[in-house]
What does this fold into?
Amino acid sequence: MSQKGETIVRFENVSFEHSVNKPILDEVSFGVRRGSKITLMGQNGAGKSTLFGLITEVTTPEDGEIHLVPRLSIAISRQVIPRDQLELTTREFFEKSFSEKVYDIDPKIDEVLEVVNLVAPKDKLIKDFSGGQQARLLLASALIQNPDLLLLDEPTNNLDKEGIEHLKRFLIDYKKTVIVISHDADFLNAFTQGVLYLDVFTKKIEQYTGNYNDVLREITARVEKEVRKNAQYEKHIQEKKDKANFFANKGGRMRVLAKRMRESAAEAEESKVDVRREDKTIRKFTIDVKTSHVGEILNIKSLSVMKNHKPVEREANVSLMKKRHLLLTGPNGIGKSTLLEHLAHDTESGAKISEDVVVGYYRQDFSTLDFDETVYKTLEKVMDKPDEHAMRSVAAGFLINGDLIYSKVGSLSEGQKGLVAFAQLVLLKPNLLILDEPTNHINFRHLPIIAKALDQYEGAMVLVSHVPEFVSQIRIDETLDLESLKPLKKK
It folds into this structure.
C-alpha cells in the first residue's frame, strides 16, 4: 500500500555522460517523495531533460543506481511534439500515449481536453494546431495516463496568459507527484515545494525546500558565507607565506619553521571551499542591419486568422518601415505562428515584403534549423562570405564554445537551439525580424540581454510573445490584436 511522503524516486551516486568528455551528472544523490511538487532548475544544456530520461528509464546511468518504487507509473509532457507525430490525428496522438490499445478512448480524450481547457476535433492533424494548442495537447497526453509521477518539461512554453493561469490552478490542486522544468519564476512560485538544482559546473544536484524565491535567497546567503570564509583563509595563507619567507631567509633552524609555515598555508589552501559559480549568461549583442532599406519594408492590408479551427480573412492596415516594431497579440489557436510563417516566406495573400529585404525568422519549434547539420555549418551558411573568426566570436557570445560548435543541432538542448537561432540572426544582419515566441526554452538569465538587443534593433520587427515582462523591455511602436480585427469585406 502506498504512503504519502514515502520516497518514490531515489538516485544513489548516479553518474551519466552524453558522450566521452561530456559529463552531465557526477555521483548525484537525491530523493523525491510521493505527493511533492518539485522544480528542476539549471542552466541551458545542464542536462535537465536528460535527468527526465533517466527517471523514465529511456537512458541508463554509467554508475550508481536509480530506485523507483514498484509499479510506479510515470508520464512525461515534453517540450515539443516529436516530428514523426505531427501527421497524426488528435485521436491517434492520444492512442500513442498508451503501450497497449485502449478501447473507447474518446470519452477519456474529452475529459482530459476539458482539464487543459482545449477544444480539439479528434480527426484534426496535430501539425494544424497552434504552438499553444500543441503545448496543451502535450500536457493532456501525459494526464490521460493518470500517472503516479508527472514530469513536465517547460509546460508554459507557447501558452497564453489564460493557459498559464489554468495550468497553475491545476497544479496547485493536483494531488500526485510532479517534477517541473521551467524558467518561469512566477509560475513556479505558485505551487513549488522544493527545488532540485542541477549545477552545470559541478555536475551535482543541490536539493532545497521552499519555492524558487526561497532557493535564490538560500543560495545567495550560502555564496556570501563561502566568500567570507575564503577571505579568512586567504588572509591566513598570506600571513603564513610571509612568515615562511621571513624565516627561510634567516637560515639554520629557522628553515624548519619556514617549512611548517608553508605546510600550514597549504592546509589552509586545501580547506578553501569551491564557491558556487553562477550560471554564465550570454554576452550583450546587437542585431545589425546589413543594408539600410529606404521606404516601406512590410505592408499588411489583410491577413488570415483561425476561428473555430477554420481560416477567416480579416482587415489590417500595417506599414512597417525601419525602426518600427509591431507586436501581434491574440489567444492560443488564432493562428499567430501560421501567420508569421506566411509573412516570413512572403506567402500571405494580403501582405507584401518589399524587394531586397533580408528576413530573419525565429521559429518557436526551430524547424528553420537543420537538425542533421553541425552548429558550425548552420552558422556559416547565413554569412555572406565565410569568416571563421567572426563566426566563432559570435557563437562564443551565445555560450557555444569548444566542441559544442561541431555538435549536430539535433543533439542540443532546446535552450541551446534557441541560442544558435539568435547567433544566426546576428550573423545574418536582417532588415526584417520575424520572431515567434523567442523566450521559449531560454534561460531567464539571458532574457534581459535578448530584450535589450531587440529593443535597439534598427530594422522592422514583427513579434509574438506571451511573456509580458519580456515585451515590456522592448520598444513596441504598434500592437495588432488579431481577435479584434474586422472581417474582410468581399469585393
